[in-house]
């Protein structure tokens, strides 16, 4: 299935577990670990009119942060280095709509998207840079939905 276009203005939600953020002087700091992904393609959910951000939670103990497609594309710079550690290029970062429908091992999620790079990220240190950039964007927003334990 070809991915559908995610517009720059779109808001995207990410579920954040309690061990993936901390509060320092009243400010919520979201950890890069909140964007861990085995395939190096962190998942987010599109926000659609009438969709409750709570629907993006993996559990009621999770909070929800918000990212914007435009910011992901424009500020998540992931450099590519040669063997001598000279920057030769940069990964293009994009958000692709990849709905989860009729998979036996996962619940349906028509809002599912993935943050992907071209070329694909193959090295852990490059993926770490992407996760840190995403965490920085998420920290600016904080949690738009607090875990049930904080309410």
Task: Give keywords.
single chain, 151 residues, alpha+beta, seven-stranded antiparallel sheet, two-stranded antiparallel ribbon, globular
Please describe what this structure looks like.
This protein is α+β, with helices and mostly antiparallel strands. The chain has one domain (4-150). Helix content is 17%, strand content 32%. It has two helices and nine strands, in the order ββββββαβββα. The protein has helices spanning 69-75, 124-141, and strands at residues 4-5, 11-16, 21-24, 27-30, 43-46, 63-68, 78-81, 87-97, 112-118. The strands form two sheets. Strands 1, 2, 5, 6, 7, 8 and 9 form a seven-stranded antiparallel β-sheet that branches. A two-stranded antiparallel ribbon has the order 3-4. The protein is globular. The protein starts with a strand and ends in a 10-residue tail after the last helix. The mean pLDDT is 92.
Task: Explain the layout of strands and helices.
Blueprint: E1 4-5, E2 11-16, E3 21-24, E4 27-30, E5 43-46, E6 63-68, H1 69-75, E7 78-81, E8 87-97, E9 112-118, H2 124-141
Antiparallel strand pairs: 1-8, 2-5, 2-6, 3-4, 5-9, 7-8, 8-9
